[in-house]
Amino acid sequence: MDLNLLAERLIPGEYPSLETFEKRYPLRDLPVGAQVTRLAPSPTGFIHLGNLFVAIANERIAHQSGGKLYLRIEDTDLKRKVEGAVEAVIAALKYFDIRFDEGAEIGGDETYAPWYQRQRAEIYRAYAKDLIRRGRAYPCFCTEEELSALRDEQMKQKQVTGYYGAYAKCRDLSEQEIFAALDAGKPFVIRLRSMGDASRKHTFRDEIKGEVTVPENDQDVVILKSDGIPTYHFAHAVDDHLMRTTLVIRGEEWLASLPIHLELFDVLGFPRPKYGHNCSLMKMDGGSKRKLSKRKDPELSLSFYRQEGYHPYAVKVYMLTLLNSDFEEWHRKFPEKKPEEFPFRLSKMSKSGALFDLDKLNDISKEELSARSPEEMLAFLKEWAFAFGAQKEQAYFADEAYLLQVLSLCMGVGGKKRRKDFVTAKQALAEIGYFFGGYVQKDAYRVDNAVRDAVLDGFLATYSAADDSQTWFSKVKAVAASLGFAAEMRDYKADPSAYKGSVADVAEVLRIAVTGRANSPDLWSIMHIFGEERTRARIAEARNRR
Q1: The pTM is what?
Q2: Quick check: 102 pLDDT over 80?
Q3: Domains of the chain, with CATH numbers?
Q4: Over the chain, what is the mean pLDDT?
Q5: Which residues are catalytic?
Q6: How far is CA 437 from CA 263, 376, 396, 440, 544, in A?
Q7: What's the pLDDT at 544?
């Protein structure tokens, strides 16, 4: 068979030599040991926690080693493309402080551009044409119906599904049969002519999982589709080589494709990059673990964390605790240090499923938010409110000096210990709503209406906003004593049966009347921020509420 003639017929036209591409995309000038990593999502519009998980690992390994991280968009499948998806990917990763050195819509060193695969079609075709000339690729004229019937037959015979061996119907077509099909205008794809034998296995060094045993590839996978656009398998091999990727960190679902990728690198004559396949993110469902699901688990989508108002730093800290087993201890020991200072290691990544726990994230979020200054907290809440909040929440920022007082109190600034009441921006704004007229009675009074009214009337009779906290509390104790409650806690503890309750119970009535909840920051401070008019109005409203 005249392979040169076949190559010209299948992929007509002149293409640059492969040596030209090697010169156009030179080796990167980086320090010894520097790693070049990438994130290569498809523009489907859905970016999830697994993407962030892999992105953080790639970013840490690249920058820690003095290397580069780039963003490549694998847009070869137009059917799955969603408008605005690339911008959404970039915005989401930027929010979580994933710093790319170059890439799609980012720019940077143009040497390795373009970063959209559809813009690199000439390159893939040149390499595919070379494979045809070498007898390592061939045209396949099988229809979808034929391939579907083939799969059905393989399943019926309990064989491995795919296009290989005796099932590769077009692999050994004669020159006459091929040209007759082409002359008839039959559509075709280009397939790899695999030389592997699936019965032969060899050990591969995975940078995360360690030694793994994989079979040789025997699948004649499609490398160019009928529209001349490459498949993921082929495009990623060509691009990872020419963009000089040294390490590919990706989800363990790609481990099954590793034999294909290894053969492609070998047949193309490229040095193989290192591969590391990270574990899946799992969650507890009842008494068993399962993978996070797009259908069942809203927390899989990165948009969930932005819409709920999780601080990106808290999410990143939690992701690092899942990525490296010793990060949590390091962060606890050095809370003032940035995560970038942590010595990230692939060897410390889990080899089995990492258990994602939203409660653990919430605990970390409380810790991280409690460490912020009121000014930082205000800026964070404001950004969220004007992106996702309601108009009433946006109105909280009309008087930022007042809001800073509220945040300082609710965060325990100036106290012995910071309060840890805030988890997310959404929850925090709901939590402080009572400072802005958003009164909601969350907790019920533990006294009847008559006692409640007596407490509120007694307090209002002597209340003055000019009172300091000591004088204010003396008056609360006086109200308690007048109504048969113990004014001193020690008296109540000594003989509870002698009293209706303690001064704490009276303070709780006032607290619920003013804030709607039984637990809150210091009540005198709340009333001080409210001022006398608002405090009296709030208590009067509670007095009349039935």
Answers
A1: 0.91
A2: yes
A3: 3-15+121-278 (3.40.50.620), 285-347+354-369 (1.10.1160.10), 372-436 (no CATH), 449-544 (1.10.10.350)
A4: 95
A5: 294
A6: 67, 24, 10, 9, 17
A7: 86
